[in-house]
Amino acid sequence: MKQNLKQVTLITLIALLTNLFASFTAQAQEQFSYEQEARILYDLALYKGVSDTDFEPDLGGVLTKEKGVVMLLRLFGVEEAALALTDAEADEKLAMFTDAADVGLWAKKQVAYAVDKKYIKGLPDGSFRPKQALNGKLYCSMILQMLGYDGDFDYNTAATSLSQIGGLTSAQAIKFNSDTAINRDSLVGISFGSLQARTKAPDSKKVIEILIEKGIVDKQEAIVAGVIKGLSSLTISNGQLSPSFNPSIFQYTASVSSSVYSITVNASAEEGKVYVNDTLITEDGGSVNLSTGNTTITVSHRSQFDELSTDYYITMTREAPPISPSESSNNNLALLSISGGSLSPEFNTNITNYSVSVTSAVHHITATAELADASASLRINGIATANNTVSAPINLVVGENRVVVRVQAENGATKDYTVTVIKAPKPLSPKQYSYEKEARKIYDSTLFNGVSDTTFESDLGGVFTREQGIVMLLRIFGVEEEALALTDEEVDSKLALITDAADVTHWAKKQIAYAIDKGYVKVMPDGSFGPKQVLNARAYSSMILQMLGYDGDFNYRTAALSLAKKAVLQLNKQKTLIVTL
Fold first, then answer.
1. Domain SLH spans what residues (predicted)?
2. How many domains, in total, are found in the chain?
């Protein structure tokens, strides 16, 4: 009898051990639902598992409420902010709970941070219950709190609410709307889905987009992982992309021949919008003109509400047209002259812009140009002209007249030399000027120089340009010394506001810079100043009114009349300027 009992006991023990071993084997071979998602979150540094160095997700691990809080803060990229709390700050924030002492030391700061930010709440009895098993409803509620939906959802349907903002599928919502404890596998499933959830309006951004904007997640790694969508296709009408298109590769190159002047870029995306050089792409693609050499094309994939933009760059290289070795590329002039005046500055092969001043008696001029290479050809103001030969007469008007000398090299390359011929207006009756006595008076008061630094030579018949008018006006108003005190750097900075700063003569640069800065003169609508333009009475009267503080109080066309009405004005506190018209 005893022998039989021993046999039965032994058989029972063997059976128990066999079942236990089979159970352990089954657990070891279990394939968890979200193992791939756990790997993605781990690679993005949003999930740690049970190892600080290796991927050990422990997806079967059971979770408590405090563990859920720690993992949630890590997912949202704010764990470091929580760990920055001092122990005293953490204790102060946890003091509201009756069971604060039960919170694990490793989780104190994270729980305190989450409580302070109202991501989690205590229970009606004043406790937190950190060791309570974490369930789907509770974890989904925490996520909704972090997304700003406090008070906008029912705890018992938290998973459904999360699915409605893109965080879960409807099937997942049904599964996780439960009080049943969840393991790490379920937490990973909810966390991974929540990357696509949107924060509460008006921001309404996806969690993953926020993590990328904050630099917590690398955009390229996110595209590789599939948590954000890049382009699904990218092609060009000519040439071959190198490397071949891949949504996670953002830099490409391609080459085309010199006969290709434009290409069409086609791109598509599963969601969002696609732009080519900031223009929304159409069904026909985006057309881009190509220059010889490199042209960079930017293809932007923007999310649904333009919160996130992923840019792809294509550097297109268009070959230069072939040039025959026998053809010269020399398109320089050796000499250039204008009848009736001298070039300023003196001619230099490498200088392409000049000016010439002529009197009112000069009604036309001619230009003579000598080629540096006889194989090149000449056109002066569009008319073919033989090398080193006087051009056809060029009629002049009062003011500026442009003469363009175009040199075309044997290989077709062109260069333009431009001469601005400034014709003076006809003077008043010779030597019978209206204000000669007044000129003498202001000369004696050192407010007017004329054309000599030592004797009275008023040159009242001399034609004024805008830059000359500014210089004399600042002298009359006694502020020329202030203008001349400007440094070269200050002058360059102020003249950068006008497009033709290079045309200002060196002796007038500081005065013009000073006048523009003070608002005494205004820039023209096209951004230019026109320093070489002939000065008229309206313009000069306007400058005076500007200096007297009447900006906006007069009409340009009646500036002289306005100035007459304001003949005597207080200036510079103690000085009185009497303007006689």
1. 94-157, 495-558
2. 4
